[in-house]
Structure formats: C-alpha cells, structure tokens
Amino acid sequence: MKYRYTKFTGDVLDDLDLQDLVAKLSDLLLSSGFGNPYATDEDDKTMQALHDAILDALFNGGVLPEETIERLLGDPADGDQEGTRNQLEDLIQQIIERMGEEGYITTPPDLEAERQRRAGRGAGGPDQPPVHFEVTDKALDFLGYRALRDLLGSLGKSSYGRHDTREHATGVEAVAAPKHYEFGDTLNLDPASTLLNAVQRTVRNAGGQGRLGAGRIDVTYEDLMVAQGEYQSSCATVLMLDCSHSMILYGEDRFTPAKRVALAMAQLIKTQYPGDSLKVVLFHDSAEEIPLAELGRVRVGPYYTNTRAGLKLARRILDRQRKDMRQIIMITDGKPSALTQPDGRIYKNAFGLDPFIVAETCAEVAACRKSGIMINTFMLARDYDLVSFVRRVAHISRGKAYFTTPYTLGQYVLMDYMDKKTKTIH
Predict the structure, then answer these.
(1) What is the pTM of this model?
(2) What is residue 354's three-state secondary structure?
(3) What structural domains does the chain harbor?
C-alpha cells in the first residue's frame, strides 16, 4: 500500500479565536437601536447585520493573522474574484454556525432562505424578509466578563477586593498585627501568636527554668490572639439607566455602553462581592425593574425622562435590603421631563426642568437621603441646565456627580464602586 503525503495547510478557523471575535461583535450583540433611531419595527439583529459585522471584524478587527487573510484572499493577479468571494462567504457561514454550536447565538434551523435572499433568488427575491438571530445568556455573560476585564485593565488594576472602610474588625482579611482576644471579637485565631503566648507564659511562670511537660502546650484564655482586618461592608446597589430615546440620538450611542457597564458590574459582584446585590431599573416615560439577565436585550424606550419614577422605584427596592451601604447609580443624559401623577397619568414637558417636575423629583431625592440611600449620578451630557440639576441632586443626597462620556463611563462607575472615593470628578 502506498501513501501520498501533502503539505498540511490547516483550516482558517483554526487561526480564529472565537471569543475574541464575539467580543469584537459586542456592539451588535448588545445593540440598543442605534442603527434604527426612528424606532420602527426593524431589528438590528439580522443575519445580514451579523454577516457584515463578522466581515468587518475579520479584516479590520485583527481577529485573524495577516498571513491567514493573505492566504484566504489569494493573489489578486490571479483574477479569480468570484472564487475568492465564494470562499469568504463559506468562511463567514462556518463562523456563524460555529457561534451557534458554541452557544453564543441561536439561529433558525435552516438558513437557506437567507442565502437565497442575499443572492436575490427564491420566492421573495431580494424583498424577502430578513432572517434574525437571538443572543444567548452565555454570550451576555461572556460579554460582561470581557467588559469587566477590559475596564479593570484600563484602570491599571490586576486584582480587586471588597468594599473597605476605615473601621477595623476581626474575622476578615488580615492587614494589621494580631491583638489579644476580647469578648465580642470574632474568634479568628492567630495560631502562631497564640502558641507563642502560651509558651512564653509557661516559661515565665516557671521562673525562666520551666520546661514544656511531655511536649504539651496548655493554652488559656489570656493567650488567645486574633487576627485583625479591615472591616468590609456589604452594599446594595440599584443601577438606574435612562433609556429615553435621546440615549441613541444626536449621532452617538449612549445606551449600549451603559448596558456594557451594567453587565461588567454584575460580573464583578458575582465573582468578587458575593454578599452584594445589584438591581436594574429603567426609566423613560415611567420606570420598571428588569431582570439582570434581560439587560443585554433591552432597547431604548419612549421619549421622555421620568427621573422621579425611577428614584421612587429604586428606593422601594433598596428599602427591602438589609445592607451596610445602599446606593443608587443613575446614568442619564437628559433633564427630567415627565412625572407620574397620583391618578396614574403622566405629566410631560418636552423642554425639561419644568418647576413642578423638578420640585417633585428633588422631593424624592430627599426621601432617598432620609432612607440612608446615596445617589451617585453619571452624566453623559454637558447641558448647562442639566449640570445644575445634577449638582442639586448631589447636594441633597450627599452623593457625587460625575461628568463623563460613553467612552469613560465604565472606568468612573467601577472606580466609584470599588474605591468609594469622596471627591467629585468634574
């Protein structure tokens, strides 16, 4: 039997880091409607949009080595453009199928209709309705992890701990010399210091000539030493996200970065602060709490900004929490322009900062302060009237105001959450 050996060229997919590709597609997978600012029924998550995003990531995102791209495209002098195009389409189709197999997206069982639609064939031709895909919980969880890793890297932090205060207590991470046990301390014994005390006491009682009997060390109450540590508090947080339509208008997507920050915070709490809690409240014409698992799929809502309704709902949620710290993190780009009246009707003023709306909103801020809830506001706009209103909120609630952009939002939110700095960043 004869064997013929050929050069192994490998598969293009072998050079592809699928997780890196999914991270590059995060803007599409977390889409908030920026590609469709007029809020029609069209959805951004079509197979054509995924195809185009993958194509851009392959050639502009750096997910494939340059030599692989050159091998894929071949020599332009060959002139086989049709063959190259078909090979590229096959590669993108394989990537989409692999994303489905790995559990990042769910696709229709038969994508032949989408292939025919692109080629202009089939019953509906090019006017055939587009095929859509769905983002899975695994993809959202992974994007939250990558967002957290990238944000912590930009902060220069290789590790992160829990919420520290200036108080000292026993039973937490040791950061100071051991001390003698006192009634009420957590019995977090320091074995080395305790045994050393016992040995020294035994020798001292024997006048410096004593020996340990039969290798036994008798430990008494006065020998006990406990490790000291910084007191680490637990925190209940409500993340208030403005999802009014202005968050995707004026040529900038502000809501998708806000969602990415929320997913990163969820990862941070799950992995490093398991005693903390995080809830998400969306506010627009009204306000509602949403499950954290659904955050990545949320799109912007109606046009107005009912800040008071969001604060009121957040306060009710935090009143049920028994934590050392309770706070509201509010991310917004607009002035309060709506108010829910006692009869359920919504009073609206498109110009914002209506005296009636502002007064009721500030009254709710005062109610949060009375309940011991701090409000930290992250502004994505620099309108003079909005700046004045946010500073007023910070003054009433004894919180902080951060004037930031979608690009630096995550850094400021995580720094505030982890470090609890007292200064205001302007």
Answers:
(1) 0.72
(2) coil
(3) 12-135 (no CATH), 141-163+234-419 (3.40.50.410), 165-231 (no CATH)
